[in-house]
Amino acid sequence: MLRYGALLFALPGILLLSLYGLEMSAINDCKELGLQLDLASGQCSEQVQQHSSYYQRHATFVNLMMLVSIVGALMMTWGMMVRGMTRPN
Predict the structure, then answer these.
(1) What phi and psi values does residue 40 have, to the nearest 5 degrees?
(2) What is the DSSP code (8-state) at residue 51?
(3) Which of 16, 23, 30, 83 is 20 to 30 A from residue 59's alpha carbon, by CA?
């Protein structure tokens, strides 16, 4: 229970940070070229884009990942309560 809880707690955060970082990298690559990233197509363009946050565009996905993380934290807590805080010999 502890191991699965730890995985469910950590992996959504790592996934969200990775996706956000990839998107920011693409935005910075376009800025270096003097262009803007078209978030719908993922291509650089000269048109001025309306900026929206990652959460605004992917609210359901982010909320589900946070829910999975909370479930993982609860599983870890439950596993510690059931197993006890004993040290292995």
Answers:
(1) -70, -45
(2) P
(3) 30
